[in-house]
Amino acid sequence: MCSSMDKFRKVFNKTCSVIGMVHVGALPGCPLFSGSIDKIVKKACYETELYLKHDIDGILIENMHDIPYIQSKHFGPELTASMTRVCTEIKKIVPQNKPIGVQILACGNKEALAVAKACSLNFIRAEGFVFSHIADEGFTDASAGLILRYRKQIEADDVLVFTDIKKKHSSHAVTGDISLLETAKAAEYFLSDGLILTGTATGCAADIEELKQLKLNINTPILIGSGVTVENAQEYHSADALIVGSHFKKHGQWQNEIEEKRLSNFMSKIRLI
């Protein structure tokens, strides 16, 4: 049986890979939907092409603009269908050696696996893998057993499941007596393919000391999931991957357009570290 690190290195072969976020426009049924799925697809593909131009190591597609988020039990079929359409079009333009992942907010972990299977993607980002917490869209329960059983049922074992621990935009008071390291060990025990360490919110930096602690005590790949910038990237280089979205946008705000100069500067610097 391959270790999580072995599986990770088959997909991401750099010491510290950079994964660029494609923040998909608000989808049908959401308050901010513009009325055109074709425009949403076109923009998502354009952002992907920018990332490819600057030789990013991977792409993560997420329905970030679907605010306010709802939990997966309230999803309509249009959400999964729309994300499948977007991912299918992006998959067409990304070289085989560039891994692609998907996250469906909020807690759409099974839906993300279904999309990944249908579109031949490489990984998903999952919420609520171990323990419970209160997110801004409501109560989030542990899901590891359900996710991995579903992955087996649909024969998607080649889709890696990267999991947030003590995730951003959430209250963890209900598990206040469980440390970050204990949470990470539980996720590792429950067969996570990669642990995602974040700050408290989108764009907020993760704690460097927490990263060091995880690297010393965990054998599962560690990804940084928020707050990486050209100024602090050096500090996170012991991580196995950096998921970057907000920093590439104008003024460093996730809802803005990608600013190519910011992307170029970051990628130039990260290759020198």
Question: Which CATH C-level class is it?
Answer: Alpha Beta
As residue ranges, the low-confidence spans are none
Order of helices and strands: HEHEHEHEEEHEEHEHEEH
**Roughly what is the average pLDDT, rounded to an integer?**
94
Radius of gyration: 17 Å
Question: How many discrete domains?
Answer: 1
- Please identify the structural class as seen in this structure: alpha/beta
- State the CATH topology: TIM Barrel
Care to count the β-strands?
11
Described by strand count, sense and barrel closure, the largest sheet is: 8 strands, parallel, barrel
- What general form does the structure show? globular
Order of strands, main sheet, comes to 1-2-3-4-7-9-10-11
CATH architecture verdict: Alpha-Beta Barrel
* CATH homologous superfamily classification: Aldolase class I
Helix content: 25-40%
InterPro entries: BtpA (IPR005137), RibuloseP-bd_barrel (IPR011060)
Family: Belongs to the BtpA family.
What does this structure look like?
By secondary structure, the protein is of the alpha/beta class. The protein has one domain: Aldolase class I (TIM Barrel), CATH 3.20.20.70. Helix content is 34%, strand content 16%. The protein has eight helices and eleven strands. The strands form two sheets. It has an eight-stranded parallel beta barrel, surrounded by six helices. Helix 2 runs parallel beside helix 3. The longest helix is centred in the first third of the chain and has 17 residues. The two termini are 33 Å apart. The model has no long low-confidence stretch (mean pLDDT 94).
